[in-house]
Amino acid sequence: SNRTMRLRFYILTFVLHILTFSGAAEIDENGYIAYCPCMGRFGNQADHFLGSLSFAKKLNRTLIIPPWIVHGYRGYGDDSFIPYSRWFQVNALKPYHRVIEMKEFMLEIAPSIWLPEKRYIYCHESTFKRSEDKKSCPAKSGNPFGPFWDNFKIDFPASEGFPTHLHFHSSKKEWDSVYPATSHPVLAFMGAPASYPVNEKDKQLQRYVQWTKDLENSAGKLIDLKLKKPYVGIHFRNGMDWKKACDHVKNGLDYPFMSSPQCTGYQRSTSKRFTYEMCYPSLNTVKSHVLSLVKESNSNSLFIATDASSYENEFNNMFKEAGLDVSIVKLENDELMMDLALLIESDRFIGSCGSSVTAFVSRKREVLGRPNEYFGASDKHNEADRSEL
Fold first, then answer.
1. Beta strands in the chain, from DSSP E residues, in sequence order
2. For each of the chain's 389 residues, which pLDDT tens digit applies?
3. Which CATH number does the domain housing residue 252 bear?
4. Which of 115, 207, 227, 323 has a CA 20 to 30 Å removed from the CA of 126?
């Protein structure tokens, strides 16, 4: 009868409605991993992100993607927590592993599997020493730790100190035996479950870190508008804080210093020595390298991204003396993402060996099959005369 048909129709609609809404946030029975990206600025956080993605895949738990912490620096105003999805596509990560943004997790999933009174924070037992009561993880002490969790209204009534034999390199089996997903659905770590610099095997995960279409289009328009191709892109660090860091390298180092493995090599047995000139190249080294690469690639433009002085006048004079017509472009506003996008798209690129911002660019260029060079890393350009600095 019509009445039965109508009833069936309503039931079916109701069931579909429930399925549609429950499907929006399917709960992962294998559990979740959360962490605070609390070490350093964007470049370091990006290294940690790749390592954490790899760790989540190893444990077969969904990675809760934290926002980027920008500390209101470089022109982002007071908005200190930038969702991953503002700059990058979340869906592009999914062919590699299951992910969910933190905001979405807290809204849709936390209410059913991560109740406020059951929120544990996980850290190494040895970290307890740093807390006031000496028997908990100091998860929210200091900035950005406190503000990060507060931003999502997260408190931790209890801590889990993992035993000394357990660490981020341990196997899934070892983690599961100590923290099965049934009783520990969310492993929330004080810091990233990853190393800095990123492990060599995880570098290729950069292929899954893809700009949003908007950002990609803006970068494309900017290139068409401002840059005459082919162009050389350079990234160098010469601010005071960087100089201070490089003072530790005065006599060279045989072990990794910040992001140095990108140009010295990852294998200790075969890696090159990291020198002061690689860390803080002289202006002569920078100029010599840029000039030879511009000539070699017949480039029409030079794109400069830097944290301090861009040496535009010096480059202009150098090109004039060499009889070259090369336009110099530097973004007026300090827009880190746009800098990165333009460096990735450059025909040739020279970066700073110790910098994690350079490393973000060079990893992406590597997976795209584009060449990378580093200031101070090749003997033919090294002119360590510091008189001009």
1. 32-35, 62-65, 68-69, 81-82, 99-101, 120-124, 158-162, 186-189, 231-236, 301-306, 327-329, 348-351, 373-374
2. 666 666 665 555 555 554 444 445 799 999 999 999 999 999 999 999 999 999 999 999 999 999 999 876 444 445 689 999 999 999 999 999 999 999 999 999 999 999 999 999 999 988 898 888 888 999 998 888 999 999 999 999 999 998 888 999 999 999 999 999 999 999 999 999 999 999 999 999 999 999 999 999 999 999 999 999 999 999 999 999 999 999 999 888 888 889 999 999 998 778 899 999 999 999 999 999 999 999 999 999 999 999 888 999 999 999 999 999 999 999 987 789 999 999 999 999 999 999 999 999 999 999 999 999 999 997 666 665 444 33
3. 3.40.50.11350
4. 115
Model's pTM, two decimal places? 0.90
Enumerate the β-bridge partners of residue 232. Answer: 302, 348
- Whether 98 maps to a domain, the answer reads yes
Q: Are residues 220 and 368 in the same domain?
A: yes
Output the six-digit token pair for 214.
Answer: 């908007």
Q: Domain check: are 76 and 136 in the same one?
A: yes
Cis ω for the linkage preceding 197 (within 30 of 0):
yes
387 beta partners: none
Q: Is the same domain home to 344 and 246? A: yes
Q: What are phi and psi of 373, to 5 degrees?
A: -135, 160
Q: Which CATH number fits the domain that encloses residue 47?
A: 3.40.50.11340
Q: What is the DSSP string of 229-276?
A: SSEEEEEE--SHHHHHHHGGGTT-BSS--TTTHHHH-S-TTTPPPBPH
On whether both 280 and 137 belong to a single domain, the answer is: no
Enter the tokens of residue 189.
Answer: 């770590």
**Among 310, 253, 314, CA closest to 279:** 253
Please tell me the total count of domains within the chain.
2
User: With contact defined as beta carbons under 8 Å apart, do 80 and 44 qualify?
Assistant: no
Establish if 387 belongs to a structural domain.
no
